[in-house]
């Protein structure tokens, strides 16, 4: 395992032990990172804090990333507590449940807005707030999915939002590179998270993935976490604006 002692990381998007964020948090903790971990609201507080308390030295912060005032508040707290940031992990995505049930052509204006605000604009807002604390450079990491490139049944507006997210990664990388801040995305294979359970046909998606991927299995949280540690480390010092696949090779297959 890489050694990231002395590094400070903030992770947004922890919901429960099935969260991709939890897999990333565990690996960053193993690498020695000082961790600030954010959950969305009071409803998620008990479960999130229960997990965070199992990681000695990690601290919990509440932040709804669709609220600029809460973003400002949490980054003021981070500045006071740590003085700097080295790593930002954006593991946040949401679309109203009804948008993932009907045909994409029936996407509502409000559903489209919400999906892009929470899943995409939040990365811009968090990066803007984090950049002044990354005075020694840093690594910003977000999570995407193959549905950004190819049509995945029932993924609908989230696929369009993930495509926008991947473009956002490139534009942020271009903007922040002069500050030695790298911005990358991990495209993880389907994982049975709380958010993924809202997608119709998830079981079929998981089976198809395992059947067709070169490694003939689904992706594990820990594998995504290990890639995040790599992107957070100096081993990835020349990597920015990229989408890195952690999907057992599924994306390389034609059929």
Describe the model:
The chain has 255 residues and is α/β, with parallel strands linked by helices. The chain has one domain (8-243): 3-Layer(aba) Sandwich (Rossmann fold). 40% of the residues lie in helices and 15% in strands. The protein is built from seven helices and seven strands; from the N terminus they run βαβαβαβαβαβααβ. The protein has helices at residues 20-30, 42-52, 68-82, 109-130, 157-176, 202-212, 221-232, and strands at 8-12, 34-39, 59-62, 87-90, 138-144, 181-188, 243-246. It has a seven-stranded parallel sheet with strand order 3-2-1-4-5-6-7, sandwiched between helices. α1 (20-30) crosses α7 (221-232), α3 (68-82) packs parallel to α4 and α4 packs parallel to α5. The radius of gyration is 17 Å and the shape is globular. The chain starts with 7 loop residues before the first strand and ends in a 9-residue tail after the last strand. The mean pLDDT is 94. This is Enoyl-[acyl-carrier-protein] reductase [NADH]. Keywords: Fatty acid biosynthesis, Fatty acid metabolism, Lipid biosynthesis, Lipid metabolism, NAD, Oxidoreductase. It catalyses: a 2,3-saturated acyl-[ACP] + NAD(+) = a (2E)-enoyl-[ACP] + NADH + H(+). It is an enzyme of class 1 (oxidoreductase). Substrate binds at residue 95.
List keywords for this structure.
alpha/beta; 40% helix; 7 helices; Rossmann fold; globular; seven-stranded parallel sheet
Series of secondary-structure elements, N-terminal to C-terminal: EHEHEHEHEHEHHE
- Mean of residue pLDDT values: 94
Residue stretches low in confidence (pLDDT < 50, at least 5 long) are none
What oligomeric state best describes the polypeptide chains here? single chain
Number of helices: 7
Catalytic activity: a 2,3-saturated acyl-[ACP] + NAD(+) = a (2E)-enoyl-[ACP] + NADH + H(+)
Binding site for substrate: 95
GO molecular function: enoyl-[acyl-carrier-protein] reductase (NADH) activity
Binding site for NAD(+): 13, 19-20, 40, 64-65, 92, 162, 191-195
């Amino acid at each position: 395992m890489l050694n990231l002692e002395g590094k400070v990381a903030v992770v947004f998007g922890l919901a429960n032990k099935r969260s991709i964020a939890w897999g990333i948090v565990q690996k960053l903790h193993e690498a020695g990172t000082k961790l600030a971990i954010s959950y969305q609201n009071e409803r998620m507080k008990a479960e999130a804090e229960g997990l965070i308390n199992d990681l000695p030295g990690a601290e919990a912060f509440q932040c709804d990333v669709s609220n600029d005032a809460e973003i400002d508040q949490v980054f003021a707290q981070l500045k006071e507590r740590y003085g700097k940031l080295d790593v930002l992990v954006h593991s946040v995505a949401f679309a109203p449940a009804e948008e993932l049930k009907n045909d994409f052509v029936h996407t509502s204006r409000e559903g489209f807005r919400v999906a892009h605000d929470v899943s995409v604009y939040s990365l811009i807002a968090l990066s803007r707030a984090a950049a002044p604390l990354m005075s020694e450079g840093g690594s910003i990491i977000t999570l995407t999915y193959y549905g950004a490139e190819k049509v995945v049944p029932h993924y609908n507006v989230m696929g369009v939002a993930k495509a926008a997210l991947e473009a956002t990664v490139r534009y942020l990388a271009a903007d922040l590179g002069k500050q030695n801040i790298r911005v990358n995305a991990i495209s993880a294979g389907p994982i049975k998270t709380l958010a993924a359970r809202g997608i119709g046909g998830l079981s079929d998606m998981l089976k198809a993935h395992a059947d067709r991927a070169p490694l003939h299995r689904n992706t594990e949280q820990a594998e995504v976490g290990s890639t995040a540690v790599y992107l957070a480390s100096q081993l990835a010092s020349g990597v920015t604006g990229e989408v890195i696949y952690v999907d057992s090779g599924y994306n390389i297959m034609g059929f």
